[in-house]
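hey so u asked for the seq, here:
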Amino acid sequence: MRKFKINELNRMTVDEFKSSDKISLIVVLDNIRSLHNIGSVFRTSDAFRVECIYLCGITATPPHAEIHKTALGAEDTVDWKYINNTVEAVDNLKSEGYIVYSIEQCEGSVMLNELSLDKSKKYAVVLGNEVKGVQQEVIDHSDGCIEIPQFGTKHSLNVSVTSGIVIWDLFNQLHG
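ran it, structure tokens below
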């Protein structure tokens, strides 16, 4: 086996990405403090053609060198908008016909491996703060919660890892 060179990967240009079809998924970042986590979510969202990222509360916005360090330019390809209040963002998405799930360990949450999406519908997922998770008020306004099954001693995953797992799974259900 031979590792591919960058020019052999045939990736889209920024303009091609901007005009390409996206999956019906918006990622909402609820008070994410780490700029590296934000950049990582941008990069994952680029990889799987997420429609848009909503940056809420204390979540920093591009342009920023520390976001760019992990996004590697994905902050220029993936559409994003800043909304101060995450509850307002969730309520707006719901009024636009999105089904909104918070990614959180909650009573009645659906395990990610048991989630079944309808390709004809639009979805949004809320990812929470590195310490406090998704705000309870945001959960209260969500349509439900998705939980990633975990089998070790830790009770949570890093938000950038969580976003990668969730976006990949939802991409597999919504793509095509």
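The longest strand covers residues 23-30. The chain has a mean pLDDT of 97.
lmk if thats what u needed
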